[in-house]
Each structure stands twice: as structure tokens, then as C-alpha cells.
From TrEMBL:
Organism: Streptomyces violaceusniger (strain Tu 4113)
Pfam families the UniProt entry points to: PTS_EIIA_1 (PF00358)
The name this protein goes by in its record: PTS system, glucose subfamily, IIA subunit
Highest classification ranks of the organism: Bacteria, Bacillati, Actinomycetota, Actinomycetes, Kitasatosporales
Keywords linked to the UniProt accession: Kinase, Phosphotransferase system, Sugar transport, Transferase, Transport
Any single GO CC term annotated in Swiss-Prot or TrEMBL for this entry: cytoplasm
């Protein structure tokens, strides 16, 4: 079982509340979402593993069991072309839960008219593969969001 932890500080709101049908409909996979604090944050690895995809606005870490966890920093933030983001590591790096991956200011996304909501998704998983999904609670990096 893999415990997936929060990459940012904020409030867990659930995937259904994400203002993007691809995430809210769990088309990418099941998981949850966080409404982050609107201050500069460092998004951290939600699991131990290898960074297999890395963009300023999103990253995927695959753990030793082959579970890929997507962290998406804001909605439509790819359109910011990296503004407000600073990538701190490299694709292919091995990370431990809690290691810094991207420095981000969610307020930059809000100022550009984008949602700061951060989906955390279990890629290629089924909804029944997840358990203990947190709902409507405040979290900080390292707090468990769900088990896979």
C-alpha cells in the first residue's frame, strides 16, 4: 500500500470541486484536490520515487510499486508559461516524500485569472483502489491524503 501525502499547504476539497471536467470527472484518475494557501509555497514529493514527468505546473512521481502520482499546480496554469513557478529538481531524479520539487506562488495564478486548485491524482488507478481519502480538512505537506 502506498500512502500519498499532500504536496502543499491548504484545504482538501475533493476532485469533484475542481473547475476542470477532466479532473472533476476523474478521467485522469481518482484522487483529491487541495485549495492551496495563497502565498509562495514549495510543492513537495507526495511519495518516494522517481520523477518521470516534470513541468513548472505539474509533475509525476512513480513509486517503487509502479504507482504514478500526478500533482497539478493550479488549473490551466500551463498557459502561464512557467511564470510564478521555479522548478527545483530534474526529470529522472529520485526523490523522497517531502523533497522540494517546485517553488510556486498560487497568487500568480489567481492574478492571471486561473484557479489555484491542485489536483493530486492516482494515475491509471480505479476509484476502489484508493482508501482513507481525506475530505474537507486542512493539510500541510506530508499529511496523508489517501492510501493506494
Amino acid at each position: 500500500m502506498t500512502s500519498v501525502t499532500s504536496p502543499v499547504t491548504g484545504r482538501v476539497i475533493g476532485l469533484e470541486a475542481v473547475p476542470d471536467p477532466v479532473f472533476s470527472g476523474a478521467m485522469v484518475g481518482p484522487g483529491t484536490a487541495i485549495d492551496p494557501v495563497l502565498e509562495p509555497v514549495v510543492a513537495v514529493a507526495p511519495v518516494d520515487g522517481i520523477v518521470v514527468s516534470l513541468h513548472p505546473h505539474a509533475f509525476v512521481v512513480v513509486d517503487g510499486e509502479g504507482h504514478g502520482v500526478l500533482t497539478h499546480l493550479g488549473i490551466d496554469t500551463v498557459q502561464l508559461n512557467g511564470e510564478g513557478f521555479e522548478v527545483l529538481i530534474n526529470k529522472g531524479d529520485t526523490v523522497k516524500r517531502g523533497d522540494a520539487i517546485v517553488r510556486w506562488d498560487p497568487a500568480t495564478a489567481v492574478a492571471a485569472g486561473k484557479s489555484p486548485i491542485c489536483p493530486i491524482v492516482a494515475l491509471e488507478a480505479t476509484a476502489d483502489a484508493l482508501s482513507d481519502i481525506k475530505e474537507d480538512v486542512d493539510v500541510k505537506p506530508g499529511d496523508t491524503l489517501f492510501n493506494w
